[in-house]
Amino acid sequence: MSSRSSVPEKRPGFFSQLRTLYSFTQKSFRWLPFLLIAIILIGVAAGVGVGFLIPPVAVWSLILWGITGLMLGVLGALTTMTRLSTHAMYRKIDGMPGATGHVLSTSLGRKWQASEAPVGVNPKTQEAVYRTVGRGGVVIVGEGNRSRLTRLVGDERSKVKRVASGVPITVFYVGHGDDEVTIAKLASAIKSLPKAIDRTTMAAVIKRIDSVSQSKSSLPIPKGIDPTKARAPRPR
Question: Less Cβ around it within 10 Å: N or C end of the chain?
Answer without folding.
Answer: N
